[in-house]
């Protein structure tokens, strides 16, 4: 008897599923040969496996090789070759009592027309009732609330300086468009800024003036010191005069 291992069992089980019987034998090279023949007209197929399986890939490769050769011989699974069973007769349905008499088709059509007429009359009656209820009931429509009047912002809240620039001239008409103020209000604001030496106006265009740098603390201290020196000299001169006068 040939040596058997896990790989031979996988191959033989795969052949058994397809309804094919396989045979195994040892080879001189330390392998196992699995041979089968689907029909006498087909050639003998052979698969060689090792006596010691290396890993799970050997099992998958053996199964795949057997299936490949079976597909080449047009062999399908045994379950697919079985014919489907014929449906069994519905014994319970046949045992049900049969009606004594079958209503002919003209009578069935007559009864159907009668039911259709009754349904049509019922629909018309319901439509009439719904129309009357619609006329009686009125839908409550809430009174629309008046829109709040648009409050214009005060001219004092709009700072004209924010719309001016140091490096760009802006026309007065552009200020009227951007700020939303009237030309009169724009002129009054420009006049105020002009008095405080904050803007420059030239041919209907306005721009900001650069801020005048304030004197530093050291310069201010020097000015104060210079102003105090003459006062001290005058005071010293007065004291000297008062001291000299009695000696004369």
Structural features, described:
With about 250 residues, this protein is mostly helical. Among the domains are: about 5-80, Double Stranded RNA Binding Domain (2-Layer Sandwich), CATH 3.30.160; about 155-210, Winged helix-like DNA-binding domain superfamily/Winged helix DNA-binding domain (Arc Repressor Mutant, subunit A, Orthogonal Bundle). The protein has eight helices and six strands; from the N terminus they run αβββααααβααββα. It has a three-stranded antiparallel beta sheet, with helices on one face. Strands 4-6-5 form a three-stranded antiparallel beta sheet. A hairpin with a 4-residue loop joins strand 1 (about 25) and strand 2 (about 30-35). Helix 1 (about 5-15) packs parallel to helix 2. The chain is flat.
Radius of gyration: 58 Å
The secondary-structure class comes to mainly alpha
Poorly predicted runs of 5 or more residues = 241-248
CATH class of the domain at 6-81: Alpha Beta
From the 3D coordinates, which CATH architecture of the domain at 6-81 would you assign? 2-Layer Sandwich
Number of strands: 6
Q: Separation of termini?
A: 162 Å
- Choose one word for the global shape: flat
Average residue-wise pLDDT: 78
Tell me the number of helical segments per DSSP (H or I, 4 or more residues long): 8
Strand content: 5-15%
In order across it, which strands form the biggest sheet? 1-2-3
Reported for the largest beta sheet, the result is: 3 strands, antiparallel
């Amino acid at each position: 008897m040939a040596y058997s291992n896990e790989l031979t069992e996988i191959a033989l089980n795969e052949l058994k599923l397809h309804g094919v019987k396989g045979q195994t034998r040892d080879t001189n090279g330390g392998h196992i040969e699995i041979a089968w023949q689907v029909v006498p007209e087909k050639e003998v197929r052979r698969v060689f496996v090792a006596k010691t399986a290396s890993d799970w890939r050997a099992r998958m490769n053996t199964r795949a090789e057997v299936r490949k050769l079976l597909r080449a011989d047009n062999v399908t699974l045994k379950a697919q070759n079985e014919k489907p069973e014929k449906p069994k007769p519905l014994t319970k349905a046949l045992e049900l009592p049969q009606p004594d008499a079958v209503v002919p088709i003209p009578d069935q059509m007559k009864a159907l027309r009668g039911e259709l007429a009754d349904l049509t009359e019922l629909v018309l009656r319901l439509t009439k009732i719904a129309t009357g209820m619609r006329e009686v009931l009125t839908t409550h429509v809430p009174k629309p609330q008046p829109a709040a009047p648009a409050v214009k912002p005060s001219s004092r809240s709009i700072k004209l300086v924010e719309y001016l620039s140091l490096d760009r001239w802006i026309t007065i008409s552009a200020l009227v468009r951007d700020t939303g103020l009237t030309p009169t209000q724009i002129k009054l604001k420009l006049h105020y800024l002009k008095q405080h030496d904050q803007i420059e106006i030239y041919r209907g265009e306005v721009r900001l003036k650069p801020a005048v740098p304030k004197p530093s603390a050291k310069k201010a201290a020097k000015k104060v010191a210079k102003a105090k020196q003459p006062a001290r000299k005058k005071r010293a001169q007065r004291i000297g005069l008062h001291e000299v006068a009695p000696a004369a």
